[in-house]
Specification:
There is one protein chain. The protein has about 675 residues and is α+β, with helices and mostly antiparallel strands. It contains 8 helices and 29 strands. Strands 1, 2, 3, 4, 5, 6, 7 and 8 form an 8-stranded antiparallel sheet that branches. Strands 9, 10, 11, 12, 13, 14, 15 and 16 form an 8-stranded antiparallel sheet that branches. The protein has a 6-stranded mixed sheet with strand order 17-28-25-27-26-29. The longest helix has 26 residues. The N terminus is likely disordered.
């Protein structure tokens, strides 16, 4: 740990060094300002975002007071000490040993011109493997500093030099501003000890007016409803905005469409028709889509509805040389952008010079909610468990029962991904809705009127499909209307969706995250979207909610714990210490997860298990967790994310080595309002 006591002799010796440091710093800054710090980007390093001109606004420390997260819990001051503006050696965030990271969320997009990090600096120590990375989305990072010269931290070999920790912090100037929202700092102990101490981190920049968006349509493939009588379709995304060449789609109301070849969060769309004579084009309509089938209109000046796409409220305009810009107040996730027009005030032809779409890659894709937190902020799903909390009187017996079941049923705790996990599909406001009919697959002999009402208008995306396993589960979430639907035994018959059970929920963001009795696809009334693990969470190394878990041998059905509102437990012989459905438990928060020999995915789960814990939500043939079904991603043309995340480890082996003997079971009805 840092030594905050310093002898007078040591202090005078340090002052002489500080004087030298000021001289050296002045020289280095002079060189940097002179333009000699043009750091090359290695061939294997992610390429930085597009260059931006330096803004006129005065750069400030945009990290000040912003929220901080880290790869591990702090053994010292809270994370917030790293952005509190205090640069003395105490307080400091202590992230323990090993390669650890600390990340600040700037809570907006900023053009950064400089970042700096202050570790503990009281004794002229040198920190190892110092790496600084920036990101627009928290998933795709660009390295701006790396002195890990042998690549031992796993982020590539760096070319920057180690340095004695200066009292003013290590400053990293960015010759060209980079647009980012997240800044992540790594280190791996120091020359004094193995600990990673952070006094303050800073990010100097100005607000990015258009976010970190770039023209993601540039060079992308174009199609149209009719052949071009002018330049080839590709001219519409070639970056050339002069009046020639142009795509000529002849007369009528044809459309031109660009495929962005991926999911992007769009903040602005622009269309340039032929603009050389101040003409006005008619029935200009712009629509976006995640799947190329279900479209949402973002601009429409067809005020009489003659184009057949609804009556628009936008005004006609004289064609500007810079193109017509359509900003989106809230970013819209899309892969396809389609443009319509119906001739102009000069002639009946439809001429396209250039189309543009400004956005950033969508880390979650357009088929998954951007965040797992869809229920009320006060929901039990999102409430951390205090470190000191009373345990169930039978906690030790339940731990023994858990381990018995693990050993008896396949000897493992598995993570269901492609089978017995619910795909989650996001519908937007423009997705067509239709009833989902009730299918009496259990031969009950009656139709549940409440369920029919909940399913009377469901926006199932065209690409949606249920889980292929025996339960055929599927979840539809529409954030635009704050609605959620869940299905068990879902199937499509003659073009009509039907299911055997599930539920429909309005005002999701105000719901505590529990289906009203007796609805929902799980045996406990707990929605799968609440407790399934997502690929995005595993990619960022943080799960911020309770995790659902299924057990095999459960207490009888009439004994269950809140938040469950029912159970399918079965214990006909009255076996002792059977765990009831709905019961919550956690991993002992004193366990040092980083010291465990676990798969990286398992470590992420373990940290969440310490903070939020598990809830028993269903019965299964083995002890299992659920990760969001990869169909949620592959249906949108994205790769199966678990291939890279699991890196060849079978899903049943990911949790090998997990300290299940350190579980702690909470009292019945824990957290019930």
């Amino acid at each position: 740990m840092p030594d905050i006591h310093t002898s007078p002799h040591r202090l005078s010796h340090r002052l002489s060094h500080r004087a030298a440091e000021r001289i050296l710093t002045a020289f280095v800054l002079a060189v940097l300002v002179g333009g000699c710090d043009q750091r090359p980007t290695g061939p294997d390093e992610p390429q930085p975002p597009a260059a931006r001109p330096r803004p006129d606004a005065t750069p400030t420390n945009v990290a000040l007071g912003k929220p901080v997260t880290a790869s591990v819990s702090s053994l010292g001051a809270p994370y917030s000490a790293a952005t509190d503006g205090i640069t003395t050696t105490n307080p400091y965030v202590d992230l323990g040993s090993g390669v650890q990271w600390l990340q600040v969320d700037l809570q907006g997009s900023y053009d950064l011109s400089k970042v700096s990090v202050s570790h503990y600096w009281g004794d002229w120590r040198t920190y190892h493997d110092v790496i600084i990375r920036v990101s627009a989305d928290g998933v795709n990072f660009t390295t701006v500093f790396n002195n890990d010269q042998n690549g031992s931290a796993g982020l590539g070999a760096g070319s920057d030099a180690e340095y004695i920790e200066p009292s003013a912090g290590k400053e990293v100037l960015l010759p060209t501003p980079l647009c980012a929202r997240y800044v992540r700092f790594y280190s791996n102990g120091s020359t004094v000890n193995v600990y990673n101490h952070y006094v303050e981190v800073r990010a100097i920049g100005t607000s990015a007016a258009n976010g970190c968006a770039t023209n993601v349509a540039l060079g992308k493939p174009v199609t149209a409803s009719v052949a071009s009588q002018g330049a080839p379709y590709a001219a519409a995304t070639d970056g050339v905005t002069t009046t020639n060449p142009y795509v000529d789609l002849s007369t009528g109301v044809p459309w031109l469409q660009v495929d962005l070849q991926g999911s992007y969060d769009l903040s602005k769309v622009t269309v340039s028709h032929y603009w050389g004579d101040w003409r006005t084009y008619h029935d200009v309509i712009i629509r976006v889509s995640a799947d190329g089938v279900n479209f949402t209109t973002i601009f429409n000046n067809d005020q009489n509805g003659s184009a057949g796409l609804g009556v628009g409220s936008d005004a006609e305009y004289v064609e500007p040389s810079a193109g017509k810009e359509v900003p989106l107040p809230t970013p819209r996730c899309a892969r396809y952008v389609r443009f319509y027009s119906n001739g102009s005030s000069v002639n009946a032809s439809n001429h396209y010079v250039e189309v543009r779409a400004f956005g950033t890659p969508s880390s979650a894709g357009c088929g998954s909610p951007a965040t797992q937190r869809v229920f009320a902020a006060t929901s039990f799903w999102y409430t951390p468990i205090p470190s000191s909390v009373p345990l169930h009187p039978s906690s030790a017996n339940f731990v023994a029962e858990f381990i018995r079941q693990k050993n008896a049923y396949y000897g493992t705790v598995s993570i269901n991904t492609h089978r017995f996990s619910s795909p989650v599909y996001t519908a937007d406001a423009g997705t067509a809705a239709a009833p989902v009919s009730f299918w009496d697959c259990q031969n009950k002999g009656y139709t549940d009127a409440g369920l029919v009402q909940q399913w009377n208008s469901v926006p199932v995306p065209s690409y949606a499909a249920p889980d292929t396993a025996a339960d055929h589960e599927m979840t539809i979430y529409r954030p635009a209307t704050d609605e959620l639907w869940e299905f068990w035994q879902a199937r499509k018959v003659n073009g009509q969706w039907q299911a055997c059970w599930g539920g429909g929920m309005h005002n999701v963001s105000q719901n505590p995250g529990i289906w009203p009795y007796p609805y929902g696809a799980s045996a406990t009334g707990l929605p799968f979207i609440g407790g399934q693990i997502t690929a995005e969470e595993l990619q960022r190394g943080e799960i911020d909610h309770v995790i659902g878990i299924s057990l095999v041998d459960l207490e009888r059905f009439d004994v269950f714990s809140w938040p469950a509102n029912r159970s399918d437990g079965y214990n006909p012989d009255g076996a002792a210490n059977r765990i009831p459905e709905g019961l919550r438990f956690r991993l002992d928060p004193s366990v040092n997860v980083d010291a465990l020999n676990l798969h990286p995915v398992a470590k992420t789960i373990a940290r969440a298990a310490q903070t939020y814990g598990f809830v028993v939500w269903d019965k299964a043939g083995a002890i299992t967790l659920r990760a969001r079904n990869p169909q949620s991603y592959t249906a949108l043309g994205q790769p199966n994310p678990y291939v890279a995340l699991f890196n060849g480890t079978p899903e049943y082996a990911i949790l090998n080595g997990f300290p299940w003997d350190r579980l702690q079971f909470l009292p019945m009805d824990y957290g019930k309002p």
